[in-house]
Amino acid sequence: MKNILIFLLALPCLLFAQDQDTITDGLIGFALKDSTATEIDWQLDAPFEEFELNGKTPLRYALRPVNDTVTQLLTWNKGNWQLQETIAHSDYVYAHVMEGIVFSHFEITDFDHDGDQDLTCWAYTDVHINAYTLIFINDENQHKLIRLVNTAEDTDIWNEPKYDAKTGQLHTELYSGVYGEPARATYKLKGTMAAPVFKEAFDSTNPDYIIKTTYEGKDGKWKLKDTVKQKV
User: How many beta carbons lie within 10 A of that of residue 184, not counting itself?
Assistant: First the structure.
């Protein structure tokens, strides 16, 4: 997520013509037909950006926004672009349009540090700037991107995900205000599967006490381990 924050701070320095590269520091942009446009006409502009994921077997992909909350992920197959899947997200993904370029929160990055580039999408955020993220892992066996699913919570959204290459673990964290419900969890990443390991959840909605609940992973789900009520 650090690249995204740096990118947003550097926006004024990243204004370029349509014939230049629209991928900057891994973040994917889309050139509009009008180089001075500050708004998007999805039907008229029909934005489309193709890119290559480097790795042991390079993969050719493209993104085609349908509107501000739906994007198509396409793969190059036998001389044609074929739809692999449709990605739903908030309009936050395409929140920045400057000088005919749509800056997105789709990012090319080697998320799992295996030498093959993956694709992530900061799908939406909230008042606490939580980075709710979609992760597409480059599967070297199937030679395609696979959406990483959190089976423990039946979702494909990951809260502020960070991968530790030394341990092979994926860490997530959910931030909240003073009286909120923050949480952090750890998963073991094996290829395109994430097995739940440990989770801590806090309930501080009552000003008099905090409830701390811990879970352990079992058979791909969270199993309650302990609940402790602490006075503030």
Answer: 16
CA-to-CA distance for 150 and 193, rounded, in angstroms? 8
Judged on CB neighbours under 10 Å (0-12, 13-18, 19+), 19 is: exposed
Task: List Cβ neighbours of 75 (8 Å cut-off, separation of 6 or more).
Answer: 59, 60, 61, 62, 81, 82, 84, 144, 145
Instruction: Encode pLDDT of 179-208 as tens digits.
Output: 889 999 999 999 999 999 999 999 999 999
Q: What pTM was computed for the model?
A: 0.88
Q: How many helices (H) and strands (E) does the chain have?
A: 2, 18
SS3 196: strand
β-strands 27-31, 221-231 pairing: unpaired
Burial of 212 (0-12, 13-18, 19+ CB in 10 A): middle
| DSSP result, 147-181 | E--BTTTTBS-EES-EEETTTTEEEEEE---TTS-
- State the distance between the two ends of the chain, measured CA to CA, in whole angstroms: 33
Is the Cβ–Cβ distance between 173 and 159 less than 8 Å?
yes
Name the DSSP class of 38: S
CA distances from 196 to 113, 133, 154 (A): 20, 17, 12
Query: Quick one: pLDDT at residue 9?
Result: 40
How big is the CA angle at 68 (ends 67 and 69), to the nearest 5 degrees?
95
Burial tier of 213 (Cβ tally within 10 Å: 0-12, 13-18, 19+): middle
Q: H helices of the chain, where? A: 2-9, 42-45
Contact 165, 172 (CB under 8 A): no
